[in-house]
């Protein structure tokens, strides 16, 4: 087995500080995106209810207006 | 069906034993290298790292960087890419998932 190579301290500090910075960045971005996603979900819920209500009314109207003998 | 499941469940301890026996030497080689190469820098090494970074900047300023061979340049590029990948792994750890943000 080849002996382990002595890694230069610059590379070592760069690696582990990149890891730390990445963790901080990931946590920060997650905390930033979380309320935005919740807001979007809430808005989507409200809009969906409205749309379903309209579709229901439309269906009822179309059923009432369609006159066929196959009732 | 139930018999097949029973046979599988009875084989699990031997499977785990086989997995451990297989992975032990590989784990030991991994530790053998990782204990020297992957450890975080001790506080004594940080000034050396800063010195190395300033050497790099000086080499860039004096134009000595233009004299690196293609082989050296490729090797340095590979090392830089590896350092960049550690950033992305840190981001995966920070956001708590592997793919995408689970908001």
Automatic annotation (TrEMBL), chain A:
InterPro entries assigned to the protein according to its UniProt record, in alphabetical order: ATP_synth_F0_esu_mt (IPR008386)
Keyword Mitochondrion: yes
Residue ranges the record marks as coiled coil: 36-67
Any GO molecular function: proton transmembrane transporter activity
Major location (coarse): mitochondrion
Record keywords, A-Z: Acetylation, ATP synthesis, CF(0), Coiled coil, Hydrogen ion transport, Ion transport, Membrane, Mitochondrion, Mitochondrion inner membrane, Transport
Example GO BP: proton motive force-driven ATP synthesis
A GO CC term assigned to this protein in UniProt: mitochondrial inner membrane
Keyword Mitochondrion: yes
Protein location: Mitochondrion inner membrane
Quaternary state and interactors: F-type ATPases have 2 components, CF(1) - the catalytic core - and CF(0) - the membrane proton channel. CF(1) and CF(0) have multiple subunits.
Function: Subunit e, of the mitochondrial membrane ATP synthase complex (F(1)F(0) ATP synthase or Complex V) that produces ATP from ADP in the presence of a proton gradient across the membrane which is generated by electron transport complexes of the respiratory chain. ATP synthase complex consist of a soluble F(1) head domain - the catalytic core - and a membrane F(1) domain - the membrane proton channel. These two domains are linked by a central stalk rotating inside the F(1) region and a stationary peripheral stalk.
Similarity-based family: Belongs to the ATPase e subunit family.
Protein name as catalogued: ATP synthase F(0) complex subunit e, mitochondrial
Source organism per UniProt: Cyprinodon variegatus (Sheepshead minnow)
Automatic annotation (TrEMBL), chain B:
A Gene Ontology cellular-component term: proton-transporting ATP synthase complex
Location(s) in or outside the cell: Mitochondrion membrane
InterPro entries, A to Z: ATP5MG_metazoa (IPR016702), ATP_synth_F0_gsu_mt (IPR006808)
Keyword line: ATP synthesis, CF(0), Hydrogen ion transport, Ion transport, Membrane, Mitochondrion, Transport
Any one Gene Ontology BP term: proton motive force-driven ATP synthesis
Membrane among keywords: yes
Listed GO MF terms: proton transmembrane transporter activity
Superkingdom in the source lineage: Eukaryota
Matching Pfam families: ATP-synt_G
Similarity comment: Belongs to the ATPase g subunit family.
Protein name, entry field: ATP synthase subunit g
Source organism of the structure: Cyprinodon variegatus (Sheepshead minnow)
């Amino acid at each position: 087995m080849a002996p382990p190579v002595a890694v230069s301290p610059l590379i070592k500090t760069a690696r582990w500080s990149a890891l730390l910075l990445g963790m901080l960045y990931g946590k920060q971005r997650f905390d930033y995106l979380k309320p935005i996603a919740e807001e979007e979900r809430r808005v989507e819920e409200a809009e969906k209810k409205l749309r379903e209500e309209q579709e229901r009314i439309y269906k009822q109207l179309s059923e009432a207006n369609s006159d066929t003998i196959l009732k | 069906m139930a018999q097949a499941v029973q046979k599988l469940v009875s084989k699990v301890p031997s499977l785990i034993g086989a997995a451990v026996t297989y992975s032990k030497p590989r784990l030991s080689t991994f530790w053998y290298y990782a204990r020297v190469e992957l450890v975080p820098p001790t506080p004594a090494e940080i000034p050396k790292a800063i010195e190395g970074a300033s050497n790099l900047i000086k080499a860039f300023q004096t134009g000595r960087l233009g004299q690196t061979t293609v082989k050296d340049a490729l090797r340095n590029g590979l090392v830089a890419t590896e350092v960049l990948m550690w950033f992305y792994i840190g981001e995966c750890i920070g956001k708590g998932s592997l793919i995408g943000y689970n908001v």
